[in-house]
Amino acid sequence: MNEITIIKPDDMHLHIREGQIMQTVIKHTAKQFARAIIMPNLDNPIIDAEMAYNYFLDIKKTVPDFEPLMTIYFNEHLNNDALDRIQKLECVYGIKLYPSGVTTNSEKGIRSIDDCFSIFENMESKDIPLLLHGEVNDPSIDIFDREKVFIDKYLVKICKSFPKLRVVLEHISTKEAVDFVVEAHKNVAATITPQHMLLNRNDLLSGGIKPHNYCLPIVKRSSHQKAILNAAMSGNKKFFLGTDSAPHFKHQKESSCGCAGIYSALTAIEIYAQIFDEHNEINKLENFASKFGAEFYKLSYNSDKITLIKNDNFVPNKIEVENQELIPFLAGESLKWQLKIN
Ligand code: DOR
Ligand code: ZN
């Protein structure tokens, strides 16, 4: 097949920051996607309904035809009134929990998940989805094991205690996460990034360290990479597209203490198309990219369509923003699929 037309997709996990960089990166996303779940981990995190609404308006000013699906940064002030205000705001679609210290701007995250259960209970009764960065923050746990330990220590209990709570285990990176989601109740789902399908830890660490392949959860050994790929290709509606595209400038990545995050938004849908095609599953792309996520979030499918064609598609070496450089995922490589611009 050399051309495919699908319902315009949604990116169900996206970081866009704020200010000028937001204005640049959201336009890249909006070319391919109709909507995106917008992560709340700004330098000053989005902790309540008012902040989420102001952020929503800021994004809309830049891309009026795009639909930002806002999220709130899980915090201890989410009492019943705060959750009511969040629920009333139609642009908010979930609450994202970061264990403190696990990733970018997570310092104000949660120190004790066991203390969050009354909020989970309230979210369940109000049908507000819980989005999880599923890694423990215990520094004594090996960084390659932090997702598995999070599942065993917390996620099993959360899902068992709140069977009606919609839960997204974000950016899954291990076979254990895939197995958990497959076996969990129907309200548990997971997003899958391009990097966790394309990379394993050799791509990060072998033959020299590759800071632009560094993200969190860190990419694992190839058996895990295969499990993630198979999950995406399985056609199971619990697995859907979420890029976790997360811009950091070049100098922040190429540093003695480099930031975690891969900027894939520039060519995201083309990368996913290539992966599905290489596994002879291009026909499953539309479900994964445009339907399963919408169904989970109780949204209708988008009415617009996009067309992708088989064509050499060069990924630029860099993008200039604010006199700084952003290095896109797969910079300098040639993709085999290209978005057709009408
Ligand atoms: O690699 C990552 N970058 N993982 C995250 O969880 C956060 C993200 C960011 O915001 O930079
Ligand atoms: Zn993320």
What can you tell me about this protein's structure?
This protein has 342 residues and is of the alpha/beta class. The protein has twelve helices and 13 strands. The protein has an eight-stranded parallel β-sheet with strand order 2-3-4-5-6-7-8-9. Strands 1-10-13 form a three-stranded antiparallel β-sheet. Strands 11-12 form a two-stranded antiparallel sheet. α3 (80-88) runs parallel beside α4 (117-126). The site of zinc ion has 6 residues, from loops.
Q: Layout of SSEs?
A:
Layout: E1 3-7, E2 10-14, H1 19-32, E3 35-38, H2 49-62, E4 67-73, H3 80-88, E5 92-97, H4 117-126, E6 130-132, H5 146-161, E7 167-169, H6 175-183, E8 188-192, H7 194-198, H8 201-205, H9 222-233, E9 239-241, H10 250-253, H11 268-278, H12 285-296, E10 305-314, E11 319-321, E12 324-326, E13 334-339
Parallel strand pairs: 2-3, 3-4, 4-5, 5-6, 6-7, 7-8, 8-9
Antiparallel strand pairs: 1-10, 10-13, 11-12
Helix pairs in contact: 3-4
Which hetero ligands occur in this complex?
A: (4S)-2,6-dioxohexahydropyrimidine-4-carboxylic acid, zinc ion
Encode the helix/strand succession as letters. Answer: EEHEHEHEHEHEHEHHHEHHHEEEE
In percent, how much strand structure appears in the residues? 15-25%
Overall geometry: globular
Number of strands: 13
Mean pLDDT: 97
Radius of gyration: 19 Å
The largest pleated sheet is described as: 8 strands, parallel
